[in-house]
Structures are given as C-alpha cells and as structure tokens.
C-alpha cells in the first residue's frame, strides 16, 4: 500500500462538505499548516472541527473560520480568536466546549476501541445536561462517549513512507491520540524518510494508524503568545 502523497491538496482529495475533522497540535504548536491551507483552497464547507483550540485570527483554524467553512467547533479553549467569538455570539457557529481532559480522553478512548467512560469533570454544570450520571464510591460522574472523526489530520517532525511518525516535544499533544481516532489519518511531516531511518524506539505513532503521508513545506511555526522575562 502506497501511503505517500505529493502534497496536501492530493492528500485531502476526498474530504467533502460536512466532514468531521480532527486537527492535531496545541495552540499554534504542531498544527498541520499545509493541510489547513489546502482545505481553505479546496473550499469544503459545513465542517465539524475537533481541535484543542481554534487557532488565532488569520492563522491555523482561524483561516477556516475566516472563510466560513466551519459549521461546528469542538474544543476546550477558544480565547485567542476574535472571529470565533464574533461568529459564536452572532449564532453563525455551533460550539461544543469540552473540558480539556475530557476532550483528550474522548479521543484516546476512540483510538482504544472503548465506547464510553465516566469522569467527574463537568458534573453539576451545563456540560452534564442530558448525559447519564452514576455514583462511584460516593462521588458522582458523567458518562462521556468516545470521539471519532472522518479524518484525523496531524503534523509530525519526521515520518517514513510506511507512516511511522516522530513528533518534537510538545507538538505530540493531541496528535498522537488523534492519529488513532480517525477513519482516515493524514500526516504531514517536515522530513519524509525511508523505512529503517527511524529507530523503532523513537516512533510515537505506528504506521498502522496512518493512511496518507506527505512532506510539507514553508512552515511558519508561529508563536501564539510570546512571553519574555528580563
């Protein structure tokens, strides 16, 4: 099975209107820049996007919000994007705000084949509305379902043509779990190498989970919020 694609546009050829996408990274760290740009160019709309956050104005998922291609966002943090706020308050964008640990675990459970789990996070709040609750050892818990996607899109530092992926430091946040939770997983990498060039002990996501891979280019790697100390 040849998993290698020439570029992002080729890798997303069958993503259609109404698709559910998981997009890896944390803030602007480790986001699939090339693939997001290709989605903007392709013009697919009515997307449901599952991501820890919504990027910033004019970059990351902010680009898809700017072009009104996202119908629904499922995230844990959205505070850096003014256009997101505007669309939310005007009713243009549907939002499912999920506690960060719950979001991460729902994705992990999908990759592990576990349909649901119980968590105390959100009990007694609006998040609990309509959800099953249960008591364990005198404490109340909510049942949360595993979170799947039509396509999981991640960005890694290095990958081989078999789909084995290596991430750099915190760029693996969410990405390693998302890669296992999509019906089709697309990986863009900074370096695409041949099988055997990655030590098996260094692999963070095994190639069995990755369906398509391509070498990206011209990464901006923006910093979401820069803090300096004198």
UniProtKB/TrEMBL annotation:
Domain of life: Bacteria
Keywords: Transferase
Name of the protein in its database record: CoA transferase subunit A
Phylogenetic classification of the source organism: Bacteria, Pseudomonadati, Bacteroidota, Chitinophagia, Chitinophagales
Endpoints of the signal sequence: none
GO molecular function: transferase activity
């Amino acid at each position: 099975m040849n998993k290698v694609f020439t570029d992002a546009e080729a890798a997303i050829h069958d993503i259609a209107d109404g698709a559910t996408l998981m997009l890896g990274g944390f803030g602007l760290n480790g986001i699939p820049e090339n693939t997001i740009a290709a989605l903007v160019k392709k013009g697919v709309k009515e997307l449901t996007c599952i991501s820890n956050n919504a990027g910033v104005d004019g970059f990351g998922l902010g680009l898809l919000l700017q072009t009104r291609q996202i119908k629904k966002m499922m995230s844990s943090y959205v505070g850096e994007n003014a256009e997101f706020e505007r669309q939310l308050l005007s009713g243009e964008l549907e939002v499912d705000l999920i506690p960060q640990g719950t979001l991460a675990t729902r994705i992990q459970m999908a990759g592990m084949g576990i349909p649901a789990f119980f968590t105390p996070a959100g009990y007694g709040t609006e998040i609990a509305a309509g959800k099953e609750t249960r008591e364990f050892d005198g404490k109340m818990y909510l049942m949360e379902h595993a979170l799947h996607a039509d396509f999981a899109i991640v960005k890694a530092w290095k990958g081989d043509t078999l789909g084995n992926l290596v991430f750099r430091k915190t760029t693996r946040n969410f990405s390693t779990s998302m890669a296992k939770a999509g019906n089709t997983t697309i990986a863009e990498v900074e370096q695409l190498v041949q099988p055997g060039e990655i030590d098996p002990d260094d692999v963070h996501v095994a190639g069995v989970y990755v369906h398509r891979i391509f070498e990206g280019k011209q990464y901006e790697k923006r910093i979401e919020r820069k803090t300096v100390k004198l």
